Amino acid sequence: MTTILVTGGTGTLGRPVVERLRADGHEVRVLSRHTSPYAVDLREGGSGLDRALDGTGTVVHCATSARGGDEQAARNLIAAARQAGVQHLVYISIVGVDRVPFPYYRTKLAVERQIEDSGTGWTVLRATQFHDLLFRLFQGLSKSPVMPLPARVKDQPVEVREVAERLAGLAQGAPAGRADDLAGPEIRTLPSLARAYLDAAGRRRALVKVPLRGAAYEAFRAGGHLAPERAVGTRTFEEFLAERFAARAGRR
């Protein structure tokens, strides 16, 4: 079996990717900033990264930071991967990075282009927002009696485990270039998703639709981050919420 390195292997997506690959019999190395034996900050690179890549045939790049540094991290990873003779780079991106001029999306698109120009076999999978992202968003907003939501914006959330299954499957195959996008089963308004969260959490909050300005907001409002033709995910936000709150109740 192939030795596979998963960057960000302790994160929301990386963890189930690692579990799936190990279940399929692969030797999997988990790279993150704080997890031994491959504790590496990709933004700095160095000998630790070289050691993690030694003998690795495939890299699944899940590591990311909303605080910046993804482009430098990708440069370091690609350079070290080429030096180590890695044959396949697999990258998780976001639906709409080429249509929505949101700063984080621009960074993801720039990393896509680095992967494509790496000279190494590559696969890029774009997915819509994870259920977990909306959960954290609504959890934070619901601390106030009033939840402000961007007006006239919809979303198409997808189950992270379904993305992990797809990403792990791609990692075990030949380089595929741009893979088909993976999107959730339903396109929903943000208020409908927020109400689903509030119902599951047993909370009552007023929802206020706030019109925003700017090119990124207009692109989100136009649905640039959606993929209605790729609604292949099966798990709904309500199903995700039922499991999440049941797990919380079980820990009490």
Structure keywords:
252 residues, alpha/beta, Rossmann fold, two-stranded parallel ribbon, globular
Please explain how this structure is put together.
By secondary structure, the chain is α/β, with parallel strands linked by helices. It has a single domain (3-250), classed as 3-Layer(aba) Sandwich (Rossmann fold), CATH 3.40.50.720. It has helices spanning 14-23, 47-53, 70-84, 103-116, 131-141, 160-171, 190-201, 215-221, 237-250; strands spanning 3-7, 27-31, 58-61, 88-94, 121-127, 146-150, 154-155, 177-178, 188-189, 206-210. Strands 2-1-3-4-5-8 form a 6-stranded parallel beta sheet, with helices on both faces. The chain has a two-stranded parallel ribbon with strand order 6-10. A two-stranded antiparallel ribbon has the order 7-9. Helix 1 (14-23) crosses helix 6 (160-171) and helix 7 runs parallel beside helix 9. The protein is globular, with a radius of gyration of 19 Å. It starts with a strand and ends with a helix. The model has no long low-confidence stretch (mean pLDDT 95).
